[in-house]
Amino acid sequence: MPKTSKPKKNAGNGITESPAKADITSGSNGEGHADTTPQSQVSLDKSEGSAPINSRLRQEARRMTSGITREYRAYGSADQIFKLCAQQANYSIPQALEKNGVIPKTEADEDLGVGTGWWYSELGLKPTFSTWAQITMLYMYTFLVRLRCLDTAEFGMFFQHLNNAYSNSAEERMITYHHLNVGGIRQRYLKDLFDQWRGVIAAYDEGLIRGDAVLATAIWRNIFKADEGVDVEAVATVTSYLRMCLRMLDKTEDEQVRRVIVKWPGLEQEHVLVRAQSPQLKAPFAEKATP
Known about the structure:
Strand order of the largest sheet: 1-2
Strand content: under 5%
Structural class: mainly alpha
Number of strands: 4
Radius of gyration: 35 Å
Order of helices and strands: EEHEEHHHHHHHHH
Helix content: 55-70%
């Protein structure tokens, strides 16, 4: 009767081990044959067991890599978006860069700078930190509305990085142009600025829902500082301009928004639109004149 080697049992851990050598059986012709079936079966079982694990590891690696890529892309895009928004009403204070320079002031005791662009030349706004901050917020808001169309996770990345870019730039201006060198004072200003940003989002959202009268009131309160002597046409022009920017971004593809392929429209056509008389103004008088 042919002899077979039995599997050895490890006394320490109770795991059954395969024989160290292949079993040898005697055939009718006296030649030995190696039986490798047990080892092949074990190798197959190991291969089948590891396949699902490897697949899950690859999927997890792809998911993590994709998340990191989206995060870095959102960071770069948000930085470009902020720079595009911030430069629309950019200003500088040359005296702040001079040794012993005297910074001019407004009637409200704000540091007065030098700015270019239609916000200053055509609307008569003064190039101060608060004006720059509010106009930058308005442009940021238009992007924020468009970014809400992306999935929740991606929108959250953009929103966080956009806020960080705004905060860093504002703090840099406080130091460079306004000599706020005490960190505690800057932090109080930045906290107040963030509260204003949240208020701007809520106010403009309400205006988009409830109509131009509410939207114009929010613009008058934030950009024109609730000045009762403000030019009403200027407020109407900014209100119309904000609507136009939102329409433009609404027609922009997601990928173009991510790559910040955006060019802001001009103000010329908004002046024409605002100055045009509405036909509805004549309607009540026409009805009374009809016999």
